[in-house]
Design a protein that fits this description.
19% strand; alpha/beta; Pectate Lyase C-like
């Protein structure tokens, strides 16, 4: 160390003694020591301690100078620890020093103020310098700690973002913002959280809404609702999930409606008319314009009206039978009572009288007298009665006698067989006048191809079917061929692979009345190739082609009071007929149009019919027919036009060209036509 003069540093003259002034310097040193002892924490105490060491080094330098100049120097104070008890106060130390002097000695008076001012200035500079250094060191440490904490929080928050723990991540970057307001790290973290949450929401919503839509499309409505709720529970304002819930609600309502309609139709089949009306009215309570429910009510109401008329007719037939001579077999009375029974099956008087008269014939019960229906049929003769218990019986059955085959319960008695094994029942040539009532005939399987069996066949014989059902045939429901004759009353033909009912061939005849032919894959009822047909008060609805297709050649066709509704082609197509009439029929809501008349059917009077609400023309007339001959028909509210004249219906290559020919010159045999309606020049 460069030699220095302690008097000069302390502001003393060359002759002045510096030792008395060192007491003030020592007091300054004690003030710094007090800072060490009063420090709030160890780190700050250590820093104050370093300042105290520097102060002591300055005192040591002064002492060294005084020793070098031969002046006595006071002893250096010992190092103060942070936990050292405080020394006596300056006042007590001063009093102690004074009391230790001899009584006759007083401290020498201070000479001049330069020492005191300079000493305090030196103390102030040392204190300021030490405290400033300590403060700077403390602030630097705080900065380093802050940076370390920010780096830790940044990594911590990034880990939470990767694991999609958004609250923890948000807290980490919020603390960074509090430590360093405006920090780009905090800004980037918040943006990463927002992007991550948006991505998570998109993925979450996409997964569960997709799941909900899949379940909805497969009809699993409960599962679809649960999936949509997953989204709304987490994101209550999600519009896509809310929309799916609305669709689910609509699907539930639709399913409920479908189930109710099915139940109402089942009640119609069971002849529970009032129950069917009540079920349909429940549908209308929620959907006042539901056309299907209205249709069911109309059908049930019509059935009730028919039932009233049937009961009246049955009562008349019963009275006629009772008026006949008693005590002997009477075929006429038997037929009347059979008809009365079919019209009013619950009437006990009719049942009792029929049973009385039937005693003149043999009655076989199956099971009981025979194990199977076929065994009973093989032993039966004309006028024998065979009664089947209410169960499903295996066919095919063959009828070769004029027997009365009936069931104990029309709703529970079925005869079925596989589609490959033939018709469930065949009426042979010897069964002239057989009667079948209250039985359902069906195929239990389906066989495709161009050759298919009908479910019931009348081949050369004659039969009356009353209250029977012909369902699920691979081919036709009922077919009449080879001079066969069939009557179907109050029957139902449904879901058959070809027509509901068919009659074909010269000499064959078919009479269908008060029956239904619905949802068949071809026509509801069809006649061709010289067969004659009589159709009255039937409903042909929902068939894949026409409701009724008549192509009789020169044979007669009489159609009255039939309803032809919502078929995929036309309501009624008259290709050819030599006689008869067409009146009082209604063609409504058919896809291609209402009524079609070709030149070969010109002999048929067509009057008093209605064609309305069809999506095609109400009336289609082949070229060569005069529209004036058909003005006595109500044609209205059809979509494209009311009447289409001069239609070209003969463009199919297999059809004979009838244009320009008189009706008498037209071939008698004409295959069923594919109707081709050309647009008018205006439509083009």
């Amino acid at each position: 160390m460069t030699p220095f003069d302690a008097r000069k540093i302390l502001g003393l003259g060359p002759e002045q003694d510096p030792r008395p002034h060192l007491a003030e310097f020592k007091q300054a040193r004690e003030r710094i020591a007090e800072l060490v002892r009063a420090a709030p924490n160890t780190a700050l105490a250590d820093r104050y301690q370093k300042g105290l060491i520097e102060f002591d080094q300055a005192l040591a330098a002064i002492q060294e100078h005084l020793q070098a100049t031969g002046l006595a120097a006071p002893p250096l104070p010992k190092k103060v620890a942070a936990n050292e008890p405080p020394p006596p106060s300056p006042a007590s130390r001063s009093n102690s020093a004074v009391s230790s002097l001899p009584p006759d000695e007083e401290p020498a008076p201070r000479k001049g103020r330069s020492l005191s001012i300079f000493a305090w200035l030196l103390i102030l500079l040392i204190a300021i310098g030490g405290s400033g250094w300590i403060y700077l060191q403390y602030e630097q440490a705080k900065k380093e700690q802050r940076q370390t904490r920010i780096a830790f929080l940044e990594g911590y928050g990034s880990t939470f973002i990767e694991n999609r723990r958004w609250p923890e991540a948000s807290a980490a970057f919020a603390e960074i913002e509090s430590l360093a307001p405006g920090s780009p790290i905090a800004l980037l973290g918040r943006r990463s959280i927002e992007a991550g949450m948006a991505e998570e929401q998109t993925q979450f919503v996409g997964y569960w809404t997709g799941q909900a839509l899949t379940e909805l499309e497969t009809g699993r409505l409960a599962e679809a609702t649960s999936a949509a709720r997953q989204v709304l529970d987490k994101f209550p304002n999600n519009s896509e999930a809310a929309s799916i819930l609305s669709r689910i609600a609509a699907a539930k309502a639709s399913q409920s409606r479908t189930d109710a309609l099915a139940a109402a139709r089942a009640l119609l089949d069971q002849r529970k008319w009032q129950d069917a009306i009540q079920t349909a009215n429940a549908i209308l309570a929620n959907a006042p314009e539901d056309s299907d429910a209205k249709s069911i009510i109309a059908d049930a109401t019509e059935a009730l009206e028919k039932a009233t008329a049937y009961r009246a007719r049955a009562a008349t037939l019963l009275n006629n039978a009772l008026a006949r001579p008693q005590g002997q077999f009477d075929q006429t009375a038997l037929e009347w009572l059979r008809e009365a029974k079919s019209l009013d099956p619950e009437n006990p008087q009719i049942s009792a009288q029929l049973e009385k008269l039937a005693k003149y014939t043999r009655t076989f019960h199956v099971p009981g007298d025979f194990a199977t229906p076929q065994e009973a049929l093989e032993q039966a003769h004309d006028q024998d009665r065979i009664i089947l218990a209410a169960q499903t019986w295996k066919g095919p059955l063959s009828v070769d006698a004029a027997v009365d085959l009936q069931s104990t319960d029309p709703t529970k008695t079925t005869v079925e067989c596989t589609a490959e094994s033939g018709s469930a029942i065949t009426i042979g040539p010897n069964a002239k006048g057989s009667r079948i009532s209250g039985i359902t005939f069906r195929h239990e399987s389906f066989a495709g191809g161009s050759e298919r069996f009908s479910v019931a066949l009348v081949r050369g014989g004659s039969a009356t079917f009353v209250d029977c059902r012909f369902n699920d045939a691979s081919g036709h429901g009922l077919v009449v061929i080879e001079n066969g004759h069939a009557i179907a009353e109050q029957c139902r033909f449904a879901n058959n692979g070809w027509n509901g009912v068919t009659v074909s061939g010269a000499g064959s005849t078919l009479e269908v009345k008060d029956s239904e032919s619905i949802n068949n894959f071809e026509h509801g009822i069809e006649s061709w190739d010289g067969a004659a047909i009589t159709l009255a008060n039937n409903r042909c609805e929902g068939n894949s082609r026409n409701g009724i297709h008549v192509d009789n050649g020169q044979a007669a066709a009489t159609l009255t009071g039939n309803q032809l509704i919502a078929n995929r082609e036309f309501g009624l197509v008259l290709d050819s007929a030599g006689a008869g009439k067409v009146s009082g029929n209604i063609a409504r809501a058919n896809l291609l149009g209402g009524l079609v008349i070709r030149v070969a059917a010109v002999k048929l009077p067509v009057t008093g019919n209605q064609a309305t609400l069809n999506q095609g023309p109400g009336l289609v007339l082949e070229k060569g027919l005069s529209a004036a001959a058909y003005t006595d028909n109500a044609i209205s509210q059809n979509t494209t036009r009311q009447t289409l004249t001069d239609a070209n219906l003969s463009q199919h290559e297999d059809l004979p060209q009838t244009q320009g020919k008189t009706p008498a010159a037209i071939q008698e045999e004409t295959p069923p036509a594919a109707i081709i309606v050309e647009p008018t020049p205006e439509e083009k």
